[in-house]
Fold:
Amino acid sequence: MGAFDWSAIVQSLPFLMKGLAYTLQLTVVAAMGGTLWGILLALARLSSIKSLAWVAAAYVNLMRSIPLLLVIFWFYFLVPIMLQWVTGAEYPPRIGAERSAYVTFILFEGAYFCEIVRAGIQSIPKGQLGAAYAMGFNYSQSMRLIILPQALRNMLPVLLTQTIVLFQDVSLVALLNVTDFVGAAVKIAQRDSRIVEMYTFVAVVYFVLSYGLSLGVRLLNKRIAIIR
Amino acid sequence: MSMIDIQAISKWYGSFQVLTDCSTHVDKGEVVVVCGPSGSGKSTLIKCVNALEPFQKGDVIVDGISVANPKTQLPKLRARVGMVFQHFELFPHLSVMENLTLAQLKVLGRNKQEAIAKGEHYLDRVGLGSQRDKFPGQLSGGQQQRVAIARALCMDPIAMLFDEPTSALDPEMVGEVLEVMVGLAKEGMTMMVVTHEMGFARSVSSRVVFMDAGRIVEDCATTEFFGNTSARSERAQQFLGKILAH
Structure:
């Protein structure tokens, strides 16, 4: 193994950066998709339609009670088989780990974002919805124009903190042999026997990005509070 | 014909009855004050008028339209009835002018120029023309409530509902809000006002409705209500004795 070899990192940098790009892309898409899905789930959970609220609650509780790794495996291995069974095809459709990861993370994170958004909606005084209705807004206008903008603003720091967690969780896709940031490092570490250099470099980059973001969230937290 | 006709409505929270057989009416251009001890159902009653509170029996007819009829489009009906709340309920994430124009744009479908012109007109009217770009949190309670009144007026309502509009205000700000309300009444606005301001009731309203324990106990002309106190129910006499003693 020998001494710490910086050139091992420099040489493989383009490959590693490609992995990082995928990681960031998956994080951003999953955070945005998960937020949208989470908003819909939160509205369903708070709905006065009992069956809708029940289904949404069951989904959220299920997702939050299963390890993420299992959910990733489940979507990668079992969903194609289910699709084959449903469509009656000869072979399971090939979805591919990269694509199934997007779906997995949106659906999984949606459950967590749902609980954040739900708390955000409940933090808005009841009278606001009454006032919105009294002005003649219907349900969807009241949510879109009055309640959600206030709720999301209150919740933005928590949503971003959850996104930092997501950024780290995304590395689990390396177990499906996907070339995300960690996946790229694993491949080079094995090929060149540069385990120390690779895993140290990845850890440092993860730390810098995550900690930097969390400092940003703290700053934001001070600036966005609505004056009441 | 009555602008607001409340017909024998009853309402329950679970098994607890909050309104029992309440009937009254507000004619066009009339100001009716609803008063009574706290917990008597005044706020609940006024919120039944624009269906912010559902009720299980009876009906409310607003300008010929039934609130209880499931076919009635409630957002449309509510857009025509202005409401002012105890805690103002301005939208804190929007500027004063956006508060005044949002529903005009999204509910009435007015264009932006028209909406802003309307907003400026009513903001001047409540004496806050210079505050248009501020946010609600930057205004005093009295100013916020005046903006809330302007916001309701921007919709050109056929009637205005006031739910304890001065109860959450510091005493020195009550006057500025009442002044706006008196002006509205003088212009012939149809108003239903839940309030403890007996001075306002005496000088502006034409009828007083007194409620206790979810029932309408008194419903008579203002001069009769305050002038002939010996003819009032025992409960109303107690209430007036407490509120007018000071």
Remarks:
- The radius of gyration of chain B is 18 Å.
- The longest helix of chain B spans residues 171-186.
